[in-house]
Specification:
- The chain is α+β, with helices and mostly antiparallel strands and about 350 residues long.
- Helix content is about 45%, strand content about 15%.
- A hairpin with a 5-residue loop joins strand 3 and strand 4.
- Helix 4 crosses helix 9, helix 6 runs parallel beside helix 10 and helix 8 packs across helix 10.
- It is globular, with a radius of gyration of 20 Å.
Length: about 350
Amino acid sequence: MAQDLSIDPDVAQVRDRLLAAVRRRYGERAGIENLVSATLGGSNRTVLFDFNDDRASTRRLVLRQETYALAQSPFLAPHPQFRLLKIAHRAGIPVPEPIFELDDDDGLGRGYIVACVLGETLPKRLVNDPDFSTARARFSAQCGEILARLHALDPVAAEFLADVPDSLDPVAAQTARYDSYAQTHPAIELGLRWLHLNRPTASKPCLLHGDFRNGNLIVDHGGIRAVLDWECAHLGDPMEDIGWLCTRSWRFGYPDRPIGGIGTRKEFATAYAANGGVDVDWERVHWWEVFGLVRWAVLNVMQAHGHIGGQRRAIPFAACGRNTCVIEYDLLMTLSGEYD
């Protein structure tokens, strides 16, 4: 839920520093108003505001501030995120337009400013609200189109991601993160072992979004408007993005609709191929769905660990500790063959 900054003690100080940052770039007549803080996300704080320049025009913009920078963080720093947004925007992939990146003089930590894109992101509304029926009819095909276009980009442009742990070995990256939290989760350990024993052959790497799913897409009544949250991007197998999209955790109560709780694999694969994507190997996708459950469980362990340790205390992060066992159950049922 959005919140007026004037009653949010944690982010009220943003106002003056953000105004100074804007005026450094656009002149002393530039102004900001109507600041609201959106829900705190996994790695970034999101602050929306109106920007007025010296031409008296107004534009809604968004500040993204880094809020998670602990050891074993699975998230890219804001600088490579901003570079990726520029790459995607130039390629015509629907993303918020990148405006400018913060620097040390701004006093706001690491982050960047992008254009605001209007629409809905809450999955429960997208899968249930009658007002989004047209968007739902297009959802799977649009996901296929967007991912095909992303995967077709020359990965050389994102070579700065080559040393990201998930680019080097995603299973090893998840194992290292899991071990760093010093907790015992037999289901996660079983999943990691299964992934190691059943690892598919390597494929030609491409640029991956890394968190492409219902919940990270801005959707209006006509369809997908923008792809958000690029902090997990890396290089790898294109089936990884597809497996993550199909992971059971993102079906939101509709397990028979693998594409975000909305559409079918066939709808997705048809659009993916029509837009230049390779033939979807659903056996490989299944391996990545198992990987997705392991990864999502580890991410929930991470968020609960941060809450318990006091680095980032919030009810949603505390709830991640309880959510871990739900994901572990889905993982075990998937490994047993009980879940598709």
